[in-house]
Amino acid sequence: MTVPAFAVVGHPNKGKSSIVATLAQDDSVQISAISGTTARCRRYPMRTDGQTLYELIDTPGFQRARRALEWMQAHERSTAERPEVVSEFVHAHQNTDLFHDECELLKPILDGAGILYVTDGSKPYGDEYEAEMEILRWSGRPSMALINMIGDENHVDEWRAALGQYFKIVRVFDAVTAEFDKRLELLRAFGQLDETWLEPLAKAVEYLDADRQRRKRQSARIISNMLIDMLTLSVTGKLPTDANAKDYEEPLKEELFDKLRSGERNCRDQVEQIYSYHDLKRVENEFDALEEDLFSRQTWSAFGLTRPQLVATGALGGAAIGGVVDAATGGASLLAGAGIGALLGSVSAVISFDKIAEIKFLGLPLGGVQAKAGPVRNINFPFVVTARAVLHHKLITARTHAQRDELNIGSDADTSGASMFDSAQRKALGKIFAAIRDSEPDGISQRHVEKLNEAIEKLL
Amino acid sequence: MPKDVVTLLAQFDADEQLDIVQRQHRDRGIGRELAPLSNKPSEQIRAWLTQVASSHVNRSGQQAQNASRVISIFSILFGLLVGWGTALAVFYYDGSRPVNVINVLAVFVFLQALLLVGFIIACLPRSAMKVIPGLATLQDTLQVLNPGKLVNFFGRYLPQNKRHALRQLISDSSTRQRTFATLTKWMILRWSQYFTLAFNVSAVLSALYLVVFSDLAFGWSTTLKTDSGSFHGLTQLLTTPWQIWLADAAPSLELVDSTRYYRLDEGLLPNTQTDSDPALLGQWWPFLLMCMLVYGLVPRVVTTMYTSWRIKSATNRVLASLPGSVDLLERLNSPDVETAATEPETGSRSKTENIDTQTLVEIRGRDCVVVDWTSATQHRLSARQVSELCGVNVLTEFSGGGKNTLADDQKVIEQIHKLNKNSPVIIFVKAWEPPMLELVDFISDLQNVDTPQKCIVIPVAFDDANQIAAPTKAHLESWHQALYVLTDRRVSVHSLHKPNE
Question: Is A73 on the interface with B (CB under 8 A)?
């Protein structure tokens, strides 16, 4: 079975490359307001595991259609032989400069490609298009006209009337704004050109749809990981014993927010890469530092024991000693020894905690004072971050690869924050955020991570 | 096992150099070969690793494994040393006082049982800790006090490469560490079990050595108010596991009764009957050895095996759940869908510098010929209007391009040439349409005479009211660009109005 191929042809500068960029999800396609940007055919095979299911071919536009048609008319023998005349035309001129673009665009059609003739429905129809449409008709290949909408004006009816005389199928397709479903729908429609193409195209649509879902899941995981990092991120700095902790507050807070912002930027880059955007320029307000008190001063002790752990150690030791006393009384003390021992041990640990930190062993201090900024405990914070990430994802998936302007994310998500989600979503997310926030960085359960992934995926 | 985790992390780091498409392409290729393992994620990842990991990447895992082995060997050696020393101390006998059976039981049975309880608490899942307040802190404390934690200390003395690899496994500084915190926990617990197992092996061997190569006298003594019957009851309880098949290793009431001694007693064991004592006293050591084996060694064999099993399952889980692993599994098991061009773009026409717009000032007041190319003005500009807008006298108007045949266009050129050859030619074109080579051909033919005429191309646009309006800057630029190829300074592009943005 031959692989369906579609030559995207037409007048120069009518969005052929835009259509190809959108359908092929390829931002390497050169798109320019300057006409005649495409000088050579470029092929965009849709392949699954190396097997080509269809192929799009971007072509240069017609430049001397009237002259080419006159040559063909001069060499016409019969209507049935018109495709041969087109072929002869290409053979006769393929190595000349005169009809370089015509030969380039006609070659794939002569090789069996279907024709996707592209026009701009926002500009009025003109007689100068007739020659090229006639040449395409002469090729005898199955064809479809696509009315692309480059500008704001609407001349679709005018175009439909004209195109209907040359093409069996005429569709309107906005290459720049077409959503993913519309793109798949168009691919399915290509199958109408030749019934043998129906099956591979249906298969291709199925694969593309599954691939899109995979990208969505991957994005959800990236956003979830960013959220977990943001919910648990803190920065610490060891302080000299005589330092004023407040002097370290602003630099540490700044460091924390720099890391948070960098994490968000990194997440954006990865999501864009997943959807095959490589050099996308983004305009986004980075989130502001929150006013809440993120700063704390804490004493640390040797062996990584925190104050509660040291208290527990003291209690254990005290209980053990008290237990010996209990044993000595043959149980007559009703475990009072263990209880009193535990109490004494824990109290002494509380009292001595700061002192332990000051002791030096082999020249190294057993403890010290550290300043810590974060993690951010503001309840609305993860909702704002999520809303921003969801909005970014939405804009990326709604975007096409024909769009070459900056991605303007705006600041709506910041202000909407939690209000972007309905109450059920807010409740579910809030629960997961709380569980993660309350976990220690190395104690976040895989279950919570998976739950967050699922919740984010539903939002995307 | 954890070697694979470190290798995988190193491979993920190395993969950062590849873009998503390259990774997808490479991994799907391997994934198709590994399709039979698609239901066994960790095995599939391991098989993938063997195919993609470079020697440099593999080295990271190997170093982690070597570091882990060094720590394990050290734990075992340390355990052997401490165990031997403890047994020597507990079984210390200088002839003045017998070896106190209670000491032996305290160290090798009750302390072991207590440590076992600590181990069990440390093993409990974090979620179970929430049931009893403070238990989580206790677990943390036990983990901090765990001898396995000494790895942090001794790890400092490893060579730098091994230290780095080890830190990847046990450090909690990296964000992805959270995924294998459980693995780290089990590794530390296993190192502690290696220590305890070695301790017990060494203690048993030490005790056996002392029994075989020295003459120990056992007795029992306590300050607590305990009679021989109660103590015998305790020993019976302890012998429960082997009472049926090894009755000789259970002390009799007679033995218990006769080997009790008090600190004020004269002689070694005052309660013993001198003629039967040697045989009777010998009955303690099988009991004590069995206690050390059953309550010390055997549980530690089990816990060591258990921690090894947990490490294996935690490694499998970690391999499949590391950030990046799920993506990897999807890449391995999902079709590789490619839609982009396979070749880089070639032959694009590059943008050239704008040519300057010549003003209409030069032709102001002169006689001109007007060509309406492809009905650009849509017949909305009369000769009079053109005269007003351009400040010229319109000699005559022609139509070109569009429905005209090439012969028609040629006739237009001939007619223009017949007119005053010095008259500039104003060509109105549709601003929104791209400049075509057909127009370029027309202009070339027009100028292909001895004294070429000045040509002024004026792109026109229409506003909403369908009135002639200014073209956009982009359209004007496109026209400049196209006509630049003519490289004839006598051709210029001009706008009737200031172009719109």
Answer: no
Q: Which residues contact B274 (CB under 8 A, 6 or more apart)?
A: none
Mean of the pLDDT values across residues A75-85?
91
pLDDT, position A157? 93
CB distance from B267 to chain A under 8 Å? no
| CB proximity list for B278: less than 8 A, separation 6 or greater | none
The answer to whether ipTM exceeds 0.85 is no
**Angstroms from A252 CA to nearest CA on chain B:** 17
Q: Does domain B357-493 have CATH number 1.25.40?
A: no
Reply yes or no on whether the pLDDT at B399 is more than 70.
yes
Rounded to the nearest angstrom, the minimum Cα separation between B99 and chain A is 21
- B438-464 exposure pattern, b = at least 16 Cβ within 10 A, e = fewer: bbbbbbebbbeeeebbbbbbbbbbbee
Mean pLDDT of chain B: 81
Q: Does B344 touch chain A (CB under 8 A)?
A: yes
Half-sphere exposure of A33 (CA within 13 A, CB side): 16
In tens, the pLDDT along A146-196 reads 999 988 888 999 999 999 999 989 999 988 888 899 999 999 989 888 889
As beta bridge partners, residue B368 has B394
What's the rounded mean pLDDT across residues A230-243?
A: 80
Q: What is the pLDDT of residues B164-195, one digit of tens each?
A: 666 666 654 445 556 677 788 888 889 999 99
Task: Report residue B260: phi and psi, to 5°.
Answer: -75, 140
Burial class (CB in 10 A: 0-12, 13-18, 19+), B285: buried
| Residue of B178, B230, B500 to mutate for A, most A C-beta atoms under 10 A | B178
Per-residue pLDDT tens for B462-483? Answer: 887 777 777 888 888 878 877 7
**pTM of the prediction?**
0.77
B9, B168 Cβ separation under 8 angstroms = yes
Delimiting residues of CATH 3.40.50 domain(s) in chain B: 357-493
B139: nearest Cα among B113, B120, B111, B152: B120
Residues of A in contact with B135 (CB under 8 A): none
CA distance A281 to B121: 53
Q: Do B433 and A128 touch (CB under 8 A)?
A: yes
d(CA B182, CA A322) in angstroms, rounded, equals 34
Mutate to test the interface with B, among A6, A49, A186, A436 (most CBs of B within 10 A): A49
**What structural domains and CATH numbers belong to chain A?**
5-193 (3.40.50.300), 209-295+375-459 (no CATH), 302-366 (no CATH)
Contacts of A39 in chain B (CB under 8 A): 347-349
The alpha-carbon gap from B475 to the nearest alpha carbon of chain A, in Å, equals 8
Whether residue A108 contacts residue A59, with contact meaning beta carbons closer than 8 Å, is answered with: yes
A24 reaches B (C-beta below 8 A):
yes
Q: What is the pLDDT of residues A382-414, one digit of tens each?
A: 898 999 999 999 999 999 998 888 888 876 555
The predicted structure's pLDDT at residue B433: 87
Nearest to B88 by CA among B212, B201, B203: B203
* B149: confidence class by pLDDT, cuts 50, 70, 90: low
DSSP secondary structure, B311-348, as one string = HHHHHHHHHHHSTTHHHHHHHHHS--EE-S-SS---SP
Alpha-carbon distance A95 to nearest alpha carbon in chain B (angstroms): 15
Contacts of A127 in chain B (CB under 8 A): 374-375, 402-403
pLDDT of residue B26: 93
Q: How many helices (H) and strands (E) does chain A have?
A: 15, 13
pLDDT computed for residue A110 by the predictor: 94
List, in order, residues 6 or more apart from B434 with CB less than 8 Å away.
A11, A12, A13, A35, A36, A61, B478, B482
Quote the CA–CA distance of B217 and B96 in Å, as a whole number. Answer: 10
Interface of A with B in 386-425 (CB under 8 A): none
In the prediction, which pLDDT does B172 show?
A: 45
